[in-house]
Known about the structure:
- By secondary structure, the chain is mainly β.
- About 5% of the residues lie in helices and about 45% in strands.
- The protein has a 4-stranded antiparallel beta sheet with strand order 4-3-6-7, with no helix packed on it.
- A hairpin with a 7-residue loop joins strand 3 (about 40-50) and strand 4.
- The longest helix is centred in the middle third of the chain and has 6 residues, at about 110-115.
- The N and C termini lie far apart (about 75 Å).
- Mean pLDDT is about 80; it is low at about 15-20.
Amino acid sequence: MKQIRSIIISATILSMGMAQEIAIHGVARDNAGAAISDGSHTFTFRLYDALTDGNEVWDEAKTLTVTNGVFETNLGSDSSMAGLNFYNDYWLSVQIGTNSELSPRTKLNATEYGIMAQLNSATNAFPSSGSTGIGTSTPDEELSVVGRVRGAYDANETEYTEIFHDGGHGHVNTVGDGNLDF
């Protein structure tokens, strides 16, 4: 059997409810650059916490159908990824059949959708530490806002309080009932 030398992988991190999965699409080639044979092949996928060496933090073996070297699957559908924190960096390794694990490992990069999907239907979530900026990419406080801040009971509220600075003076205004209660 020819040794498998290369693989091209496209990965998207998804989170649906509590189940986390990674959609994988790839092309496996042998050492001559030809697609591996059509048919069923055993793939073992592993996640590590480093490009080289490091710790294996997850694995899953699957029998996949390969056509013209192309394969696809959802990692995490057989072996749960619920214990993984996808705010950490992970590197994916692939082993096909009895061949050695392919090298180098592939770093997982989350898409914007994938990052937002991790929030499990939460909206406007912010990190628990560090600085967050709205209207600025260089926040100098835990929360830095460039522009007006409006506080209301709900999105359609006609009564609200706003805080802003006009360059010369700071303002706290109430709109609606006229009361400013502290």
